[in-house]
Amino acid sequence: MIKAVIFDMDGTLIDSQPIWYRVSIDFFQKNGFPITMDDMIKLTGSPVGKLVDFVLQAHGQKEKERAQLVAELMDYAVSEILATKPLMPNVKETLAFLKQHQIKMAVASASPRNMLQGIVESCGIAEYFDYLASAEDLAFNKPHPAVYLHAAQQLGVSAAECFAVEDSVLGMISGKAASMKTVVIPAQAEWDDPRWSLADFKLANIAELPTLLNL
């Protein structure tokens, strides 16, 4: 029996992926790194540190140190996301419905906790979550299962009692590695990716989620 739903943030609850693409390309190019949209698409679902590591490995060290690049890119992206408040369609209604039916909910994200807190508050969905889990607080990031297992532990449920809801392949692998039932909600352009066959369920919209819980 499913007692909890643990959501990824970027691309699942908020439509932030286009913002990340735009901001990252702009930021790296301004800092002398010739990054393209194809590069960004390949790294979808990766934490900021991994983006910076990829850029430095591919194009060499420039004027700024890794830590400075990570901090500046994060600040730039978070400010854009908080200003835009790009909540996905049907998110608030779905979260309210699950809360009404006593389903525990958490976020499990590669993003820093302060970013998660700022997003859920600015988008008006903070009240629905029992816990916000950031992989940056843990030893391993996605696709390692640590952030999902940590979220389940904080909710007081077993992994077998959880849905992990994701939009990226890396995130799906993380949820599967945590031994959770994995629900994917792919972007339309990625709908036919054969890798989604690894998921337990594939949905077109988050509004379909309650039907999986027989609610």
TrEMBL record:
InterPro entries: Beta-PGM-like, HAD-like_sf, HAD-SF_hydro_IA, HAD_sf, PGP-like_dom2
Hydrolase is among the record's keywords: yes
Cofactor(s) for this UniProt protein: Mg(2+)
Keywords of the record: Carbohydrate metabolism, Hydrolase, Magnesium, Metal-binding
GO MF annotation, one: magnesium ion binding
Family classification: Belongs to the HAD-like hydrolase superfamily. CbbY/CbbZ/Gph/YieH family.
Name of the protein in question: Hexitol phosphatase HxpB
